[in-house]
Amino acid sequence: MTVVAFIGLGVMGAPMAHNLVKAGFDVIGYNRSPARADALVARGGRRADSVAEAVRDADVIVTMLPDSPDVEAVVLGEGGVLEAARHDALLIDASTVHPETGRAVAAAAQARGIRALDAPVSGGEAGAVEGALSIMVGGDEKVYESALPVLRAMGSTIVHVGPAGAGQTVKAANQLIVAGTIELVSEALVFLDARGVDLGAAVRVLAGGLAGNAVLQRKAPAMLARDFAPGFRVDLHHKDLGIVLAAAREAGVSLPLGTHVAGLIASLRAQGGGSLDHSALLLQVESLSGRRNELNALGAPPA
Amino acid sequence: MTVVAFIGLGVMGAPMAHNLVKAGFDVIGYNRSPARADALVARGGRRADSVAEAVRDADVIVTMLPDSPDVEAVVLGEGGVLEAARHDALLIDASTVHPETGRAVAAAAQARGIRALDAPVSGGEAGAVEGALSIMVGGDEKVYESALPVLRAMGSTIVHVGPAGAGQTVKAANQLIVAGTIELVSEALVFLDARGVDLGAAVRVLAGGLAGNAVLQRKAPAMLARDFAPGFRVDLHHKDLGIVLAAAREAGVSLPLGTHVAGLIASLRAQGGGSLDHSALLLQVESLSGRRNELNALGAPPA
Amino acid sequence: MTVVAFIGLGVMGAPMAHNLVKAGFDVIGYNRSPARADALVARGGRRADSVAEAVRDADVIVTMLPDSPDVEAVVLGEGGVLEAARHDALLIDASTVHPETGRAVAAAAQARGIRALDAPVSGGEAGAVEGALSIMVGGDEKVYESALPVLRAMGSTIVHVGPAGAGQTVKAANQLIVAGTIELVSEALVFLDARGVDLGAAVRVLAGGLAGNAVLQRKAPAMLARDFAPGFRVDLHHKDLGIVLAAAREAGVSLPLGTHVAGLIASLRAQGGGSLDHSALLLQVESLSGRRNELNALGAPPA
Amino acid sequence: MTVVAFIGLGVMGAPMAHNLVKAGFDVIGYNRSPARADALVARGGRRADSVAEAVRDADVIVTMLPDSPDVEAVVLGEGGVLEAARHDALLIDASTVHPETGRAVAAAAQARGIRALDAPVSGGEAGAVEGALSIMVGGDEKVYESALPVLRAMGSTIVHVGPAGAGQTVKAANQLIVAGTIELVSEALVFLDARGVDLGAAVRVLAGGLAGNAVLQRKAPAMLARDFAPGFRVDLHHKDLGIVLAAAREAGVSLPLGTHVAGLIASLRAQGGGSLDHSALLLQVESLSGRRNELNALGAPPA
């Protein structure tokens, strides 16, 4: 029976680990705040008290952590994954981090003989719970193939997109398009509303043509209902767009709209919207257009 | 048998008129360059030698013209539709024009007792040929209902979105989202290419998540194949974005990304790209990023 | 004694007319609301009760009107300047209008044998009072030379910049640079304030180098004192940037920053800031940065 | 006689050190490529073979280095300034670096009892040669006063702007305004040229009003003469704007135009313009407007 160590049992990690249990893997989980491991144990998994304990006997190690420094500490740091793992283990980092972190992890793993993939996911908490995540995988093709049984327990669209770091690059592109699309839909809605159009009808007809997109389908109804509970928080999208901008700058790539929407997300956050769903970009377009000012009621901006 | 006058037998108008013939209407067509009416006659329609002759006995009049000045001349001008039409006729303007032109036409029609709708379409030549257009309709709801038999012969998604001009407003929003989405996809592709990612695989996985959109599905394959034959020309999208900017400015609505992408389309056109498909925004991102410079080979910009 | 008709005795026009009286011209003034002519009479000018009466015997006609439609009505309209003026008169339009309006006026004047110049001014009410305006003049060089005695009574920097319309084009460029510079200074001030810098000291050192500009010298002190009384109103700058955007679009010229700042001015206006001085762009940067929200206290935006 | 160690004898550092010699200081210089110290010796200075040797007996240490990593290595690193300097020495870092580097240096110096200032300069090579630099100084006020004799030998406008790091923050704001102003002037010039205006005359009248700025005065003549030899290289401005964007992002400050112009500079560099003067932003506006394409002749972009 394949042993899978799962590091990081947060909003996304926990349901991903549960799906691995359900698929028949022997899952041993570790989380910094240990209470989060209880749910895993209740579903038939095991609990470890340290990263080293979790990975020591694992065939496969999945990490699902908030940001690059966490990955660097947990994977590359003292007592971390690479130090403690078996030399024939397979490391799958599902965190969203800078592509260079993805490459650095792969290189450090290879130096110890450990196979590694970067495999960030898209699809949100719902996708994690339903095992329906999109997973964009970077790394060696053979390693990718050997990881498929584990990846298939967590996602439904699994694509190998290139060498180490490529998964992170595609995730960055994903976050760029998502942010831009939410902003475009927000601008369209404020424009339509200002000109007296029936918004529900407009969304219906827009969704059917070349303007159609997943934001109109999945997010617009909540936006029209003025429900901005996350979902995916502005704070996290802000972090992800920081990765996009840095990676594009390094590559000399011009992102006119991407840079602009990153500024709008940063502004929304500075105005106190960090813990709202990213669809709250709508509130900012309303404010800029002098139509509503709900941002102002959000209270003090972050320090 | 309902008589339908069809004014404007261009790339879009001709197949729309043919579908009306096929649906059993008695279609009498007029086009400024009369040769374009031959195809209509060949399919069982009739030909008129003037706007006035075309509309004189028509129950329904459909106009499909390039721009606001054409609509103003053909509909409101001397010897035009409103002057010549029966007082119980129904006018459907399918042209893409400024919402205020839509309202002005409706008001002028009403002053003569003629019912009118603005009903711009989305879906391109393919949608027109297949009778699968999306049609966004502004005007009185009862008039809308009376127009449905004619509209259904031309489109598959037909939505009443509000009062006179609202159809044009939704079309403007449609063009805003489409331009922005093509640009976002272009930026993502150049970014991914610069970082060595397999573009086909990336498009596949991006299309499946919250970044998914109709541009990734319908346009990205041709973009990757570097086929920029129109389709929908940059020149026309530039015209449409002029409508969007003007209408938003009048309404005091802020369109940060919309304004930006309108500038990028205008620049692409100034660099000689006017007759390419709008997906040629990709060429501009490549040029701005110093990766390829195919724009430069386009030759002299327009005067 | 040269007779000068002066049409439009507003905030700018009145002091300009007074300076013409002071310079020894026989000035006959007309204003739509006739009370504004009293001050001119008190200083030794004369009053006319219609445009026609004012211009009938004038050697030189100066018009100083709010916008293109006013110029079209007063100059080109029935009973207007061109209809009533002598055929050897000289028309100087000091209004800020679209360059094409400047050209149209010049062409219409020429058709009647009347010499015409477009001569918009910069320098504000203070410059008008002190006769220290900058005047950018478009039209025939000989006509320009014949107009110098009149122009020198109103301004201190007087430059012939090209053919008919060129004065308006330079004024448009002036307004583009001014708006952009106020925004850049605002962004710098908010950035410096957020990072704990002494703003007065910073303005001093910035003004001395390559970052130095007239906004830092003349406007920054009031901005730091949070005094946003006009001066030059946001509403007017919004109108002027509309001219810039339209003229650039027609010429196929790309104005990345110009377009962006026009959107910011439009947004400031939509949020209720139309009657503040244009330096109130500072308030918007503060709001976008979550530092202060004084815009919100401005009350309802314009309809 | 006050001993001044000068580390970094580049384009800026060499003339600054020469001016210190001229002002009567005992200057001992160090440069990584030692040949650059010859000129200093020829003018009466001394040469050191290592940082440690240069600073060992110095009363004042001036560092003038390219970027943050250089400052970190030379000042904070092994065998560096802080390790080798006397405990009563005064460190003046004139490099342009991130404000946080400025603070980190000050904190590390204080921990060793060494007084430190961040004192970046503006004014270019000409300003350095003539001792006419603007110097923006962050740090303790008393330390600032004790440094004035040395600073006055190098600059003519010397302003204390706040605590440690504040000098760097003001320099960042300076670079933001300079880049934005060059871009605004470029947009205005292309707009004016496209509409047939006499550019020399236009620059004259623009420079006299509220649009006036140092770029119009000092840079526009070379731009009109199409001379883009540096001066200040695009590569360096790109580096500096990276500091601006990072510092603004950390502070939550929104820089709409600043972000936009940073993207335009990055694009100019990606298109091969990195070693041109920053006024080459003009070439990019011309290219975007389809008027000239000299960027394309620049050859391959940087890797």
UniProtKB/TrEMBL annotation, chains A, B, C, D:
Active-site annotation: 171
Keyword annotations from UniProtKB, A to Z: NAD, Oxidoreductase
Domain 3-hydroxyisobutyrate dehydrogenase-like NAD-binding, residue spans: 165-282
InterPro entries hit by this protein: 3-OH-isobutyrate_DH-rel_CS, 6-PGluconate_DH-like_C_sf, 6PGD_dom2, 6PGDH_NADP-bd, HIBADH-like_NADP-bd, HIBADH-related, NAD(P)-bd_dom_sf, Tartro_sem_red
Boundaries of every 6-phosphogluconate dehydrogenase NADP-binding domain copy: 4-162
PROSITE patterns referenced in this protein's UniProt entry, alphabetically: 3_HYDROXYISOBUT_DH
One of the GO biological process terms: organic acid catabolic process
MF-aspect GO terms: 2-hydroxy-3-oxopropionate reductase activity; NAD binding; NADP binding
Family: Belongs to the HIBADH-related family.
NCBIfam families: tartro_sem_red
Name this polypeptide is given: 2-hydroxy-3-oxopropionate reductase
Source organism phylogeny: Bacteria, Bacillati, Actinomycetota, Actinomycetes, Streptosporangiales
